[in-house]
Amino acid sequence: MAVAHYGPLETEDGCRHFEIEALRPAKDFLVARIAGIDDRNAAETLRNVHLFVPRDRLPPIEDTDTYYHADLIGLSAVRQDGSALGTVTAVYNFGAGDLIEIAPAIGGEPLLLPFTETVVPMIDMAARKIVIVPPAVSE
Q: What torsion do the CA atoms of 100, 105, 110, 113 make, to the nearest 10 degrees?
């Protein structure tokens, strides 16, 4: 619900802004009334438009074990032995839990791994790295 207090939401490119007039929780999501969107047809034009709060409007984090997903982008990903695995390029959630995307250090296809304490046991924001324990692959 705090999103209503962060100012206008923006499209990813920052070109369009949307002011929340009212917000209420629903089952697994929020329902918002947006200024200037007065009917169903106007609302329909916003289908699949992803809205964002610029990072500088989010409250500062005081707990060292807390972070915004956006802060993980660009961190080095290393194995438990310290060897380079790659770089964090994204954090996704397609509905079944968070996934972390790692661009491999030596090229190739990105790795998409569960973002769990088992696979990502350590995040060190000060050192700008995360430790990855890749899940075992069965053949």
A: -30
Q: Rounded CA gap, 86 and 58, in Å? A: 28
Other C-beta atoms lying within 10 Å of the C-beta of residue 87: 18
Q: Where do the domains of the chain lie?
A: 2-57, 69-132
Strands 76-79 and 129-132: parallel
- State if pTM tops 0.85: no
Q: One digit per residue, pLDDT tens: the chain, 139 residues? A: 888 899 999 998 989 999 999 999 998 888 899 999 999 999 999 998 989 998 888 888 888 788 888 899 999 999 999 999 999 999 998 888 899 999 998 888 999 999 999 999 999 998 999 999 988 876 6
Fold of 69-132: SH3 type barrels. (2.30.30)
Burial of 85 per CB tally in 10 Å (0-12, 13-18, 19+)? buried
